[in-house]
Amino acid sequence: MIEVTFLSGGGRTVTAPENTNLLRLSIREKGGIPFKCGGGICGTCRCRIEQGIENTDAIKPKERKHLTEAQFAEGWRMACQTFVLRGKVSVSWPPRPAATTARTEVQA
Ligand code: FES
Fold it and tell me: What is the CATH number of the domain that holds 35?
């Protein structure tokens, strides 16, 4: 079994079988990783593996269209393209740009 902690989604930890897709697990368990296409195109599912990057699979060509080598070195991946192979992984992601935030900034 693997263990994934969704840090930006309230810190919940869930378990799943080995070699589980990170985005599919997030959707199933309501982990909260943002997504749109689910197919490596939109780039919405960018996330950072804070712990356990060695437990994820190899970087896919589609990820290279959205992330730089420097970001990969910091642990960034695209959740829809990433499989957790074994062990424990902690993942965080940037806050979604919210319309309400933009309005607040305009008023301020
Ligand atoms: S959800 Fe669109 S690239 Fe992952």
Answer: 3.10.20.30
